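seq as requested:
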Amino acid sequence: MGASVIEATDANYQDEVMKSDKPVLLDFWATWCGPCRMTKPIVEKIADEMKDELKVVAIDVDKNPRSAAQFNVMSIPTMFVIKGGQVKSQVVGGLSEEQLKQKISDSIKN
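struct tokens:
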């Protein structure tokens, strides 16, 4: 993942995501997932562009099955927008950069 994307694990995701002082885009992915590889550059670009207002965290589902199970992730990529420890929205599958930015914007306004 890009420099602005934080790699989380089962051990630290609570601190990185649920206790974050910024809204979080939480991306569940895996190295073997074709759609995940397609969305990775979009997620990285959003992480770089929105780093002052949004924290982007990625979790590899193969290495961190507990986190994926806690969020009931059944297919990947799955992304959540989390604000104040609360899930504000969920995206399953890929979106365009514009669609994902709009989803994030709509979710962190509230």
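The mean pLDDT is 93.
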